[in-house]
Structure formats: structure tokens, C-alpha cells
Amino acid sequence: MGGKRDSYTTSELRHDWLADRWVIVAPQRSERPEDYSHVVSVHNDSSDCPFCCGHEFETPGTLASYCSANPVGSKSWQVRVVPNKFPAVNGLRYRVDASHGLASHGPASHAPASSPHFPLTVPIDSEAVLSTGIDLYVRRELSGGHEVIIESPLHLQSLSQLDRETVGLVFRAYRDRLAYWRCERNSSYAVVFKNVGYDAGASLAHTHSQLIATDILPTEVQRHVARMEEYERIEGACLFCRMLAEETEQGVRIVDKTARFTAFCPFASRLPSMVNVVPNQHSSSFETLNEVELDELAWLTHRLIRRIERCYPKAAYNFVIHTAPIHKQNSTAFHWRMELFPRITKVAGFEWGSDCYINPIAPEDAAASLRTVGL
Amino acid sequence: MGGKRDSYTTSELRHDWLADRWVIVAPQRSERPEDYSHVVSVHNDSSDCPFCCGHEFETPGTLASYCSANPVGSKSWQVRVVPNKFPAVNGLRYRVDASHGLASHGPASHAPASSPHFPLTVPIDSEAVLSTGIDLYVRRELSGGHEVIIESPLHLQSLSQLDRETVGLVFRAYRDRLAYWRCERNSSYAVVFKNVGYDAGASLAHTHSQLIATDILPTEVQRHVARMEEYERIEGACLFCRMLAEETEQGVRIVDKTARFTAFCPFASRLPSMVNVVPNQHSSSFETLNEVELDELAWLTHRLIRRIERCYPKAAYNFVIHTAPIHKQNSTAFHWRMELFPRITKVAGFEWGSDCYINPIAPEDAAASLRTVGL
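YS: structure for the whole thing
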């Protein structure tokens, strides 16, 4: 593929097998003229930042905190986990509200309040549905948690500004909180994610990550699990183990690697310069990482973010840790992964309408830029 | 539901039956503090705008043009359709490139070059796949078209600035170009969409829409078709016909209506203040609209955009026209619809990771604001 460089100047379709989604790779789109520019302003006054050291009373109570082996001055914590003050997830019990005017039949109303096996999606062809009709207005309460991992007592704005010890503590916090939710009654799904900058959906600038745990498994996650299990059934191997071997052999999409982890740009990335980080040995669950592995992954992530910040100065970015859903621990089909991506394009009408993304940077080109940038 | 107003102050899950996707409605999220603000600058010099009257030579040749019944001055066109100079879609033949190092087996390589029935997705459990293995690196050329509908010879920036006659001509252009692609050999799918403003993914400010036609049916569109057919099979009725009856009875999510069309905020909107516009009588295909219907819809859309611009000044917005895929014309299950939505929130890490959206405005509240705003 390396020798066919000129093939990247016209559009092509690539198939993302996991998501069963076509992506349009269209490098010529990046030559478009641009009438718009934007300037992001950051309110950057640490004196009223609720995440800064000394403002602990402005957040809900501490769920976990982590100290440096060599604390500087009076700082009693280096990383701190608190409940989100404006949670997206709340409620402790199931509820079906029939006040919308349709009868409250349908699967939701059949779930006992305490069932940990609440149906994950609304089936469309079961006998129950056939006999009662499809309810287009199913609603219920959402049970789970929404937490904030504050990554420094100082008013820093990117994980790349943390020292090696602190970024290791941040990844310990991810591991510990995911492990906590794995044991929580009714949990189905927990995800750690990070939004940095305006275009990535951040609201506060102080460097932080978030965890959301829910009692439902989102439909798309459930589809991905089914695809990985289907791959294993047909191929007798884990999808990402196989892909990793192939990526290593081809080499053109590799960005960085360590003894235990590999970072590469996926063949059918829907967003430009997206990077996947996966463990080299099969593992379903991020929360089983030991201290040495966490430190190695944390520092690799730090380096990947520096690569992104060098290639795309001031770009907003996100990352997401996809660990196995609660009921799929120790799955031989599910390989945990981290997705990391700068937010350098906008999602426009075509993508919203079709879920078919136009990526203006060929993943091979993105990987070459990220791999070779000076750090 | 109207009497339960206080229920919208905590999160709840709502199920979007069509997309089989849970949405989190979380009004309390809109109270979050915000460190970021942004200012969009528009390069607004019509002297170098390729879409302005007098610059026709800067775009590829005209595909269609529409004149006013009462032309002003020397303007020879009022609405003009041209190929996109930086198309996302190109290529005229299928191609499978095996240079990625894996054998080029798998479904893609079996498609004859001229087949209009190229498999729409890569099947995962067919015998062909079982015998040849799953190819994780399927790529092919993309055949189709990418067009721009220039909505005025003047340097205007929103469809809401057009007069009634011109917005009618714009909708005629949509109808005619969709009808053109419906007859094109190998076409599977065509979509009209509009991006206005930086956050909506626009690159040029001069008011315009786009059409993309492809020889594949995007997987998500195919899923929606399957859900609508499943609904019809179980319920013996069209999903949107049924939903429209229910929305009309409940009333709380209705934004606007005319004799032939209804605009409402969907019960499980994944984006805040999203509006669906649907024909009151079942119709699968936008391109079958007659002149009177087009004029009525065009002016309703104009009014809806003014409502959005009054409620969310300077907000970017998109709309998308979902007409039946080429092979589903005259479907009794597929009801065409238009989705219109301001871009007032960002898609963050959680949404990218889970495809589960957090909507901070309850659709009932969004509809009330849009319905009652002064025009």
C-alpha cells in the first residue's frame, strides 16, 4: 500500500467491519476553500475553578483520591474523583411513565424494578410484542453514575501537561472506578472518556476525565459485542488480535508502540487522525491492568496526545476507553481498546443523515504524520 | 404529559424506535458552568465568492438552473445546480484493491463491475464468507454524484433570507435532482442536506444545499428501512403515519403545521430542538411532490428556520431530506421526512463511544419554545 500513494487523491469507500459501516476516505476534500474561522476563548481564572486545589468544597464529596509519592507543598491530593455536579445519569429505580397517552405495554413495563436483566433493547419480533403492539413512546428512569476524575490540583488544561507519575495516577483512577462499577448491582455498562477543548464538548477547562455507568447497554455497544462474537465464531479468533497482527505486518498505519500496547490509525476511521490503542495480548477488560501495565499505557497515551497536539496545534480532542460490558468480562471475543481523536472536522448534514462519514485524511497519511512528528 | 412538567428536571431514558437507540434527556445538564466561548468569523466578501452572480465560470458547468418569474436586473438565474468542485463521491466503476496484503476475497470482489445489486453490506454469516474468511480490509471505489444547489445569485447566508418564490424554486431543484438520481444507473441512495454556519460543517457562507448520490445504501439507512418494514409487518401500518396521529393527539411536541405537512420535535430526539417535518398523507418519496406541495413545504421550512433563528440567534443549523432509497420507491412502509436541527451542543466522548446521546432540552420544552416564539 505504501507504493500506491497517489491512490489517496480520489475518494474510496472502506468498510469498518466492527461497526458494519462504510466510510468515505476523500483526501481531495481538504483542499476546499473556507469562509469560516473561529476563535475559542477560555475563561481561565483558577480563582473560581471548582476543580482547583482549595475549592474542594465546591464539588460533591470525594469518591477516591490519589497522592503523589513526593507531594509538593500542602497539596493533599494529586488526582481526585467526585460525582458530577450536573449528572447525565441519575435515579435509582426503574419507572415506566404511561402518561403519554398510549397504554404502557411493551417490554419496559414488564421489567421488575430490581431486575439486573432488564431487556437491553426493545425486541421487534417477540411474541410479547406481537400480542401487545409496539409502543413508540417507551421511557424509563436511568440508573447508574456520572463521575469526574480531576487530574491535577493545578489549573492545567491537557493531560499532556501532567508529569509521568500523575498521568499514571489518573490511569489508576480509571481502573479503580471501572472496577467499582463492575461490582455495582444493576450495572450493565461503564465507560471512561475525556473531552478537551470547546470542539470536543468540554465545559470546564481544568484537565479532567469522566466516567458514566448505566443499567442499560447502549444499542451500538451491544451491536459491537455481537460483531466481535460473530467474528470469533466464524474465524475462531479475536477480531482485534487478528487485526493487530495484520497492522503490525503492514506497518503503514502504526503510530507508536510499547512492549505491551500498540497504537494505530484504523483502516476505516470515520474521523480524521483517529488512533486506536490496544493491548498486544488479548484482554477483555481495562480494569484488570496491573500497575506496571497502567504506567506504560499512561505514558504512551501522554505521548500520543503530544503527537496530536504537535500535528494539530490547539485542536480539541477526545478519548474513550471501551472495556467489556459488565456481563462480558473475560470474553475471548471482546478486546478492550482506547480510541483517541482530535476534533479537526465538523459533522455535517450528510453524516447526520446517513451515518456514513467523510474522512478527509487517509489513515495511512494520518499515521505517517503522527508517527514522524518531532516530540 | 403536559401536567408533569417537573419530571423534566431529572434524566430519563427515551427509546427511539426507528433507530433502536436510547437517548438520555437531561435538562439539568444545561445549568452547567461554561469556561469556553467562541466567536466565528465569516469571510464575507462577495467579490471572490464562487457562488455569486458573475462568478459562474468558477464552478463546474451548470446542471440545472431556475429563473424567477419576475427577474430583477440582469440576473439570468435565481437557483443554480452545479457539480461540487471538491466532491466526496467520484469514480465510475467498482474496484477492489488487494494491495493491502490480504487476499482480495470476500463479497466485494465478487461483484460484477456493472451490477446494480452490489451487496449493500458485507454479510457476516453467508456460506461465501464462511468458506473464504472475513476480510477486515474491504475497500472499493464509490460511484455517484455530489452536487451543490446555489440558492441565490446574491451573497445571502441563510435560507430564511430568501423570498417566498425563491425558496419554492430551491425545493423544486431538490425534487428535480432527486428525481434525476432515481433514474441513474447503479444509484442506490440520494440525500439532500444543508449545512449553515461553522458548527454545522459549512465551508462556504453563500446560501446553498447539497445532494450526494451513491451506489451503496449506507448501513444505518438500510437499518432504518428494515425497522420501518418490521413495524409495518407487526402493526399493519406505517410507523410515521401512526406516529403522526399520536403526535397530533398529544399536541405537546407539535411546532407548526400546514394543510399537508406537520412539524414536530421527535419524542427521542438525540440533538436538542430537532424538528421532523413529514407529509400528513403517506408518501415514500419527496421527489413525487407537485408544485403546490413543494411551495407549501418550502414556506413551512422557511418559517421553521426563522423559528430556530429566533430561539437560538446565530446558531448554525442543518437539515436532511430522507427520501426512500431508489429500490424502495412506492414503499408503504417508508414515509419520507425532513430533519432540521440547530447545532447548539457538541458531540462529546460519551456520545462517540456509546452512540447514546445526552439531550439537554426535553423535546416538549423545545417544541413549546419553537411554537410560541414571535416571527
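YS: worth flagging: Chain B has a mean pLDDT of 86.
IM: good catch. Also The two ends of chain B are 27 Å apart (CA to CA).
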